[in-house]
Amino acid sequence: xxxxxxxxxIGLITATLSVMLGESVLATSSQLKTNxxxxxxxxxxxxxxxxNSEADRLLNEGVQLFQQGTAxxxxxxxxxxxxxRELYRAAGDKGNEAVTLLGMGRINDLLGEKQTALDYYNQAxxxxxxxxxxxxxxxxxxxxxxxYDSLGEKQTALDYYNQAxxxxxxxxxxxxxxxxxxxxxxxYSSLGEKQTALDYYNQAxxxxxxxxxxxxxxxxxxxxxxxYDSLGEKQTALDYLNQAxxxxxxxxxxxxxxxxxxxxxxxxxxxxxxxxxxxxxxxxxxLTEELRSLAPPGELRQTFFSTVxxxxxxxxxxxxxxxxxNPQKGYDALAFHASERSRARSLLExxxxxxxxxxxxxxxxxxxxxxxxxxxxxxxxxxxxxLTRGQFTQAQIDALTTQSQSLINQLNxxxxxxxxxxxxxxNLQYPQPLNLEQVQQQVLDDDxxxxxxxxxxxxxxxxxxxxxxxxxxxxPNSTEIEAVATPYREAINLDNTTTVAQGxxxxxxxxxxxxxxxxxxxxxxxxDGILQFIPFAALPIPSQPDxxxxxxxxxxxxxxxxxxxxxxxxLANRPxxxxxxxxxxxxxxxxxxxxxxxxISSENNPPSLDNLALARATRSLGLGDxxxxxxxxxxxxxxxxxxxxxxxxxxxxxxxxFEASRYLATHPxxxxxxxxxxATHGLIHPVNPELSGLVLSLFNPQGESDNGFLRLNDxxxxxxxxxxxxxxxxxxxxxxxxxxxxxxxxxxxxxxxxARRVVVSLWNVNDLATSQLMTRFxxxxxNENQPPIIALRQAQLExxxxxxxxxxxxxxxxxxxxxxx
Length: 821
Hints:
By secondary structure, the chain is of the alpha/beta class. Helices cover 53% and strands 13% of the residues.
């Protein structure tokens, strides 16, 4: 069951106008926010006289931009209100300065910057008190309480709500009083004090009816229904939800309507009314898809989708329950389709945008601004790296971090604007997730079995799909699976003594149910949750605990089955690049590297395979505030030499030392190569994917510091129509995990740039072992004329069969993503 809705206000004071924004902003907010567990704002503008016409103009322009509710307009509103604030502060107008602070706080809250929002609200509070604006003070206290509530600090939230409540009553603000009563009720409900919550909701309801606020009345009715449901009074709960539904429709709050339909479906399911529940969930999912399409493209749309995943989960649960009751009705096929609809939608849209070339026809000045912001951001990050290598203070690091985040925000805003003005984007038709029949026709062949996993709170599911069949399986819930997968993942990531058999417990869960269908077929794995971090190739065959799945199967991974079909369609008629391979390896990372002070002479003196000290080096880079240890990866040089010698000299480029540079990696000439191979340190940022990337040479031949970070925004701007990109570095297959989207990281960047398939790693790979694996991989492709997926499998099998590299720690990290054909 979805959590109760809460309400937050923006007490904005303009100089010329008194207007309730009400439902228009409420509807927009439901696009920006997520599900019914997320607060729904009820912004208010109240008139107040001001003698500062310029500040008033900026304030009102900001209000209009806020009402538009797009990512771009919100950030523009923030700029307007910041400018207005400075003017009001200079004039000593504390009341209107507080107004701008409140609006700026609300925007930061919408954009997920909770601490920044708190800072603005806390600056507004003493200003409200200084001008004895008790109504504005109550609004500010309410909003501070709301942020603490969203941060999980329930008691602190209650303290602020309880400070706001008597002020509401003192100024006879019945609507505001109802807002705060509703929020207090929601906190008590989340704390399990249902009767107390009910008391507060019931106090709010007549106030809302008296002021005629049907949207907030609907929210409160919904919340009362949830309390009665938790108390076991199902029919009473349904009665309240049925009262809320027409009110949400009357005020055209589609987010509230979808939430209520979801709550009704959950309640009906608990009563065994599965068919009725399914009808409501289908309506809720359709509304959710509509709201998603209206949300601004990019991060806000992705954020919205991540927070409505509970709806898809309930929808899939219902369909699978109905399938158990009626196995011949095709409910499992509908559940599979729902699973496809619930994942990797932003990636599909990104690739569609890449194919449409949305920057074509855009004002060159906007594109120049985009490049300028990327360059500024790279410069700031390079400066931050340089700073951490010497003496620094935390304040210096924090200042650069703030500048970096500001530039990321500006870049996101500008890229949204580019989409809006792009002629090609206006005509773009985004691909829709494929249903079962389409996946069977467009993705699968006679030799491929799709294993699609979905992890749920109650149960998890596995669909095994062939070209002409579907079989579904019920698995343990996500918590139980994580309890088995987490220790296995930790062991295989860190310990070179880990054996294949140590994955048996996980294999019994994930593979054993479907083992009789495997039949030596190619396995296309669409994973979910923690399973995205698991090397399926290294899992044991359940009946043969010491034998990895790799022995009997080629294994490909993908974010969704639809992605494979989409890539095939986009790249079907693309000409093959003229040259064979570009290998970029063994960059210079540290100022004490001997290559900076002498002629480079190691070309013909590769490192000895007996040098076990260097063999322990891993291709990883931390992203903390202190400088990471950037060990030279000498075996990446051996790897590059072994690969390059397999290709004719006129069809290859081998870039080592200073030449392994960011300049080369971003040069247009790189688009001439079918295979791009990077052998270097990888860096993954789990919070800001924009900071993820590869590390190339940090010094030029003159010994001067150089920006060698190839970050995700750089990669998105590359033109690499490559058949294969190999990221022979650490954790390059990882990224920020976003519900409903998967791992947001380097893979999608290179696919956007044009790569048909990408080889990536799941953990900190060993330098020497990786050079051995990659050499064998390319030998299989070139000497044995094998396609990449078979070549990678054969190379991993050779490693497993060797005495030295048998542990999956050495070879299991690498997986291939994309089309296997």
